[in-house]
Amino acid sequence: KAGVTQTPRYLIKTRGQQVTLSCSPISGHRSVSWYQQTPGQGLQFLFEYFSETQRNKGNFPGRFSGRQFSNSRSEMNVSTLELGDSALYLCASSPGTADQPQHFGDGTRLSIL
Amino acid sequence: GQQLNQSPQSMFIQEGEDVSMNCTSSSIFNTWLWYKQEPGEGPVLLIALYKAGELTSNGRLTAQFGITRKDSFLNISASIPSDVGIYFCTGAQKLVFGQGTRLTINP
User: Fold this and answer.
1) A32, A52, A66, B48: least CB-packed within 10 angstroms?
2) CA B67 – CA B93 distance, rounded (Å)
């Protein structure tokens, strides 16, 4: 069974640009969550999508947005990039019903110059 | 908001030693999950706990769901080099993760 796939694996951008990251969940999983991981802040929850609707949202500015498509694939967009946005962005999928663990992709490493 | 305190933050041990780490929550959890992350990879699920007092093993790993439902423990017995990584805890809602325990093993 294929795992969670994130593309691209690495990305370099400059301040002020925008970026879109992609996540393909495990087949049959309807929930996709996004996290930002930095050495100083650890794993920070961005948002969760379930059946194309945002179900939960973390405490990030509006520059961070996402969406989910009918096939459960999800994209995350960050606009007006700042140096502090440099991080590993992780996507995780789960079936979506209560208490079912999620499984992570290997992330997209975003570097802002 | 919900907070998770994970300790210790780092451990430096000799190969063959046992390891113990724990997580404490400010609120009650119905589920505890433990993940391990290796360099360049995403976290991988190790153990899921669903019931207060539950003790679950996965090879040399054993995790317990505290009876107060506010804490959980992960133990690794007879550590080996491939145990190196960062271990994270979280609850079922996955909104908050512990800060991680970085395990380093001296051969």
Assistant:
1) A52
2) 19
A with B: how many residue pairs have Cβ under 8 Å apart? 46
Q: CA B19 to CA B41: how far, in whole Å?
A: 22
Tens digit of each residue's pLDDT (9 = 90 or more) over B9-60: 999 999 999 999 999 998 898 999 999 999 989 999 999 999 999 999 999 9
Question: What is the DSSP code string of B33-76?
Answer: EEEEE-TTS--EEEEEE-STT-EEEETTEEEEE-TTSSEEEEEE
Chain A positions touching B42 (Cβ under 8 A) are 4, 90, 92, 104-107
How many other CB atoms are found less than 10 A from the CB of residue A106? 18
Q: What is the pLDDT of residues A50-101, one digit of tens each?
A: 999 999 999 999 999 999 999 999 999 999 999 999 999 999 999 988 678 8
Backbone angles phi, psi at A98, to 5 degrees: -55, 140
- β-sheet bridge partners, residue A75: A22, A67
SS3 of residue A45 by DSSP: strand
